[in-house]
Write a structure and sequence with these properties.
Chain lengths: 123, 457
């Protein structure tokens, strides 16, 4: 074997598995979680606690501004909590049934708020 | 968890590597770019140690830790080291062909790189989406890092009230730098920072040993240590154990190579790594003492020339460690070492502690066959190879082993058990096993060379 062919073979020994392995593993798509993973929109029939979420903000100060607006509309028990994805969300957690949540969401949207009915995260 | 966070970590660790390589350039110069590439892993760990040591001292002085400060430290450090290198007359590296490998060595190296690379890729997959589960990590290492990130310094409440208030802050500083690089306190992607440290450590070991041992001894040793059950489980845990182990092992290896060729840059780099070790975990001080003490013994015949140099290494390590100790003592925190250094402990507990250390060291479910292979390599090295090298590693590992037993017997409230929640001996022993694996190829190569009467590969 010449030195040149040995170099080519060595390069192949390194490159084939090191490139092939991630390609094979990633063939069905490598998953990159995003902040959207912390948003679980409630569906009819979903079991579990429900929240009426008025929005998410990157900083606590921005979330507090939104909270003032939400309380001004009438949701005086709304609070700011971390959403688990490095953001702050403004929510009202007094929703007991899905249908009630839909009504509250409609009222909030009617008042100009970007509300959504979400499943409360576990814990 | 996002591509942006991963990219941030890539940039941060490239910065660490550039800082370390610049320091190496100032210390030794690079005649060829290939030499810089070979030592890039060592440069990475050297950069992490230097960055952590500098920022520990800065935080003790009250300098705020933020993104601008991180960038400034790296840029100034790199520029300063490069200028120092030029002033010291180091040549600008060039692309030039070096001594070639034999065909067999080339193919063995390629196979080794491929296998180790595959393993590291698998570790990457495991680290990328790992949640924060290790108890010490979520209990105090990561909270301290969050404190450095959010409060831009050594928040007195967090650092004096959390568990382990005497534990040094180098790791929380590196973690906080990672948070800045990722753009958020992303404790999932934080595991990837430990993956980068692992890659750096593997590259550093390979780069340091590459010219001193044949490929067929080097790569199997690296593979063996990477597949040790305990390391497979814990290498990516966001705690300080692996980092202090790596600093210790690389420093011990550099000193071993210095004993052979007396290249001063090796001692200087070892000093920075040992300084990093003293600020990573409390046993870092013990490890530094062990390395310097073993080198003092191994250089007995040339003590007039060598001991002042080793004294300087010890001085650097101790000087780096002092400010942090002053910081917590000024806040009435104590407990780094047992009050009477364990002198008042009975003989029974001493024997039990030694037996526990021995049991843990030779526990195959933790370390596989690495300790046994090391003993064989040590015997071969002492019988047929460089006896001073063998004696040095025997002293380092023997003293570090006794140090582990001392930790158990001197703290009367630590039970004699291998249960990690109650006794740190298993975590501690990782350093010994890692060093044993790194020393193994060097000892075997020494015996092989002397047996054949040949020069280095």
């Amino acid at each position: 074997m010449t030195h040149r062919s040995a170099v080519v073979l060595a390069a192949a020994i390194i490159a084939v598995p090191l490139i092939g392995y991630p390609l094979v593993v990633g063939a069905d798509g490598a998953r990159f979680p995003s902040v959207d993973d912390c948003v679980k929109i409630a569906r009819p029939g979903d079991e579990g606690e429900l929240d009426l979420v008025f929005g998410r903000r990157d900083t606590r100060a921005e979330a507090d501004e939104l909270l003032d607006r939400v309380r001004g509309v009438g949701y005086v028990d709304a609070v700011v909590v971390g959403d688990g994805c490095m953001r702050w969300k403004v929510l009202y957690d007094g929703i007991e049934r899905y249908e009630q949540g839909l009504e509250s969401r409609a009222e909030a949207r009617g008042a100009g708020l970007d509300a959504e009915l979400e499943l409360e995260p576990p814990g | 968890m996002s591509v942006r966070a991963i990219t941030g970590l890539v940039v941060l660790n490239a910065g660490f590597a550039a800082l370390g390589l610049s320091l190496l350039y100032a210390l030794r110069g690079f005649s060829r770019w290939q030499d810089a590439a070979r030592l890039a892993g060592l440069g990475h760990l050297l950069g992490v140690a230097a960055f952590g040591v500098v920022w520990t001292e800065l935080l003790v002085l009250g300098v705020p830790f933020n993104g601008r400060g991180i960038v400034a430290t790296l840029v100034l450090g790199i520029a300063g080291a490069c200028v120092a290198g030029r002033l010291l007359g180091r040549p600008v590296p060039r692309l030039a062909r070096g001594p070639g490998l034999t065909t067999l060595a080339l193919l063995v190296t390629a196979a080794g790189v491929a296998l180790v690379g595959l393993l590291l890729e698998a570790f990457f997959r495991a680290a990328r989406l790992q949640s924060l589960q290790a108890s010490n990590a979520w209990a105090f290492w990561v909270p301290k890092a969050k404190a450095v990130y959010f409060f831009e310094g050594l928040d007195e409440q967090v650092f004096t009230v959390s568990a382990g208030p005497t534990y040094p802050p180098l790791l929380p500083i590196v973690d906080a730098a990672a948070f800045h690089a990722m753009g958020s306190v992303d404790v999932v992607t934080l595991h990837l920072q430990f993956w980068f440290l692992l890659v750096g450590a593997v590259a550093a070991l390979a780069g340091l040993l590459y010219r001193h041992v044949p490929a067929w001894l080097l790569w199997p040793s690296l593979l063996v240590v990477l597949v040790v059950p305990r390391f497979g489980e814990r290498l990516l845990t966001p705690q300080a154990d692996v980092l202090v182990d790596v600093f210790f092992v690389l420093a011990a290896l550099l000193v071993a190579l210095w004993l052979d060729d007396r290249q001063g840059w090796r001692l200087a780099a070892a000093a920075v790594l040992l300084a990093g070790a003293t600020l990573t975990k409390r046993e870092g001080l013990l490890f530094a003492a062990v390395v310097v003490g073993a080198a003092l013994v191994a250089s007995w015949r040339t003590r007039r020339r060598d001991w002042p140099l080793l004294g300087a290494v010890a001085l650097v390590a101790v000087a780096a460690a002092v400010p942090w100790r002053l910081w917590y003592r000024a806040r009435d925190v104590s407990g780094e070492a047992p009050g009477d250094l364990g002198l008042g402990v009975g003989a029974d507990r001493t024997v039990d502690a030694l037996r526990l250390s021995l049991d843990v060291l030779f526990e195959t479910s933790l370390w596989s066959v690495v300790p046994f292979l090391f003993l064989l390599a040590l015997a071969a090295g002492l019988a047929w190879g460089d006896r001073r090298l063998g004696a040095y590693f025997a002293i380092v590992l023997g003293a570090a082993f006794l140090g582990g037993a001392w930790v158990t017997y001197s703290y009367a409230d630590i039970p004699i058990t291998a249960n990690e929640a109650l006794n740190p001996i298993v975590r501690y022993t990782g350093a010994l096993v890692l060093l044993a694996a790194a020393a193994m190829p060097l000892l075997l190569a020494s015996a092989w060379r002397h047996g054949r009467g040949s020069e280095r590969p």
